[in-house]
Amino acid sequence: MSTAPTLNGQVIGQAHYATRAVLEGTLARTGITFLQVVALNATADNGGAVERDRLVGRMTGTLKIDEPAVLATIAELKSAGLLEALPAEAGEDARVGFTDEGLALHGRIAAAVAEITERLYGDLPADDLATAGRLLSLVTARANAELAGT
User: What are 73-94's pLDDT values in tens digits?
Assistant: First the structure.
């Protein structure tokens, strides 16, 4: 009889990479990369338009990537006609927002992600998911604090 492993970086990493591989398979069919879908999600989370600097900060902070990688991703999305430059409002930096095509693609990807989420998490007990969420959020906060101290 096997026992469940204790939560640690290896278990978290294996879950992350397995889940990401499932997502990458879906994204490959759309022609969108992981970084691009993260940028589209961040844009959607901000109502369909976001200050470029805010998008850069979110992606560098969350994904632990450098600013040039995010700026290249934004440029790719603009070149593909999925995001467009928007005029800045008073007190804002330059903004980007969805084109009609970008909004439609984001909707299709979000629906596909919801299906993946249901397949992978749907039958797991809500209490277990809540506990795992709290623990992983705490680990993330601790790692981020440690990174900020370096």
Answer: 999 999 999 999 998 776 666 8
Q: Given pLDDT bands bounded at 50, 70 and 90, which one contains residue 1?
A: low
Contact call for residues 65 and 57 (beta carbons, < 8 A): no
Side-chain-side CA neighbours of 120 within 13 Å: the count stands at: 14
Structure tokens that stand for 146 in this block: 């440690």
3-state helix, strand, coil split of the chain in percent (to 5) is 70, 5, 25
Residue 123: what are its φ and ψ, rounded to 5°?
-100, 5
pLDDT, tens digit, for every residue of 29-73?
Answer: 999 999 999 999 999 999 999 999 999 999 999 999 999 999 999
* Rg, C-alpha atoms of the chain: 18
Q: How far is CA 75 from the centre of its chain?
A: 17
| pLDDT, position 4 | 82
Which among 29, 52, 48 has a CA at the least distance from the CA of 109?
A: 29
Three state DSSP letters for 40-109? HHHHHHCCCEEEHHHHHHHHHHHHCCCHHHHHHHHHHHHHCCCEEEECCCCCCCCEEEECHHHHHHHHHH
